[in-house]
Amino acid sequence: MTAARSLTTVAELAAAGLLPEAKRADAAAVAERYAVAVTPALAALIDTDDPRDPIARQFIPDAAELVTLSEERADPIGDLAHSPVEGIVHRYPDRVLLKAVHVCPVYCRFCFRREMVGPEGLGTLSAKALDVAIAYIAERPEIWEVILTGGDPLVLSPRRLQAIMERLAAIDHVKIVRFHTRVPVVDPDRIDAALIEALKASGKTTYVALHANHPREFTVEARAAIARIVDVGIVMVSQTVLLKGVNDDAGVLAALMRAFVENRVKPYYLHHPDLAPGTALFRLSLAEGRALVESLRGRVSGLCQPAYILDIPGGHGKVRADSLAVEEADDGCFRLRDFRGQAHAYPPEDG
Ligand SMILES: *Cc1c(COP(=O)(O)O)cnc(C)c1O
Ligand code: SF4
């Protein structure tokens, strides 16, 4: 099972029976533009008899990705505007993103960083760039939390992860190290003792935020991988992207949130889909999303309630999409107030 390789080309997807003949030409055009990868674990999970399979929809290239709308942007949440040094995004005073790697085990068709990740993306931080990034953190006592994301940091070898963790361990003011990953679900065998050991740093608290979008992603192997992480005392939280045709259904969302809780992963964020290029096929309106989230209230335990979050286009940070910071205007548009109190239109005006 572990010996199998990920499928990364249209020919490989076709050979695995995951791409019908009629869709291959368009898929090839998509693959020219955006990275493709499907792990063996996910390939096995796809129901090829179901043309609307929610797992396939997340990972198999679709002709609709070739259409980019005017409101979509290459950097939808404004990472680049808040990147003081390579590999660091510093938007909020007390926490930074550390993007050591821009590779993922799978490439999600809706990815908000799709212009930065992949074999032709921003790559892996050089030793020198990593030194600069670590120095940036070390020099700023207000940084309480470091969030390793990317890309998916759990594609790094235990040795490289450990080297990063040792350097963070040496910085007194950093108390929390958080990893954002999809690996426990998409490549569960990778979660072995050496990798888990590398996630810990002396004197720091480790959190792992698991990205999963459909209850079927919780296979026996995925559940076991999650248990291995939680069993060593690492706290896990969830991250889900609300996606049309995948989980935009109260029953599916409820089952997904229950699956997280049953596996000791506390539901954390449900993200409204970002304005990434070629992802209109996945987007529902903010009004639709708010109605869905509202329907979860009372229906499932409070433990199963994630915060519904929208990243304000342009890099103004996150806002709770079901809170008073979001006001519906007469024309069906919304006004969002960012954490600094500034107002923004949503969907944003062009530009
Ligand atoms: C999302 C994000 C974070 C983390 O935000 P939390 O609300 O703490 O989960 C931190 N920095 C940046 C730049 C982000 O985009
Ligand atoms: S795992 Fe995350 S960063 Fe990687 S392609 Fe999926 S959404 Fe993008």
Automatic annotation (TrEMBL):
Cofactor(s) needed by this chain: pyridoxal 5'-phosphate; [4Fe-4S] cluster
Top-level lineage group: Bacteria
Modified residues (N6-(pyridoxal phosphate)lysine): 318
CDD domains cross-referenced by the UniProt entry: Radical_SAM (cd01335)
Molecular function GO terms recorded: 4 iron, 4 sulfur cluster binding; isomerase activity; metal ion binding
InterPro entries: Aldolase_TIM (IPR013785), Lys_aminomutase-rel (IPR022447), Lys_aminomutase/Glu_NH3_mut (IPR003739), rSAM (IPR007197), rSAM_sf (IPR058240)
Family matches, as Pfam families: Radical_SAM
Domain Radical SAM core as annotated: residue spans: 90-313
Keyword presence, Isomerase: yes
Sorted UniProt keywords: 4Fe-4S, Iron, Iron-sulfur, Isomerase, Metal-binding, Pyridoxal phosphate, S-adenosyl-L-methionine
SUPFAM superfamilies, per database record: Radical SAM enzymes (SSF102114)
Keyword Transmembrane recorded: no
Annotated family: Belongs to the radical SAM superfamily. KamA family.
Protein name: Lysine-2,3-aminomutase-like protein
Origin species: Shinella zoogloeoides
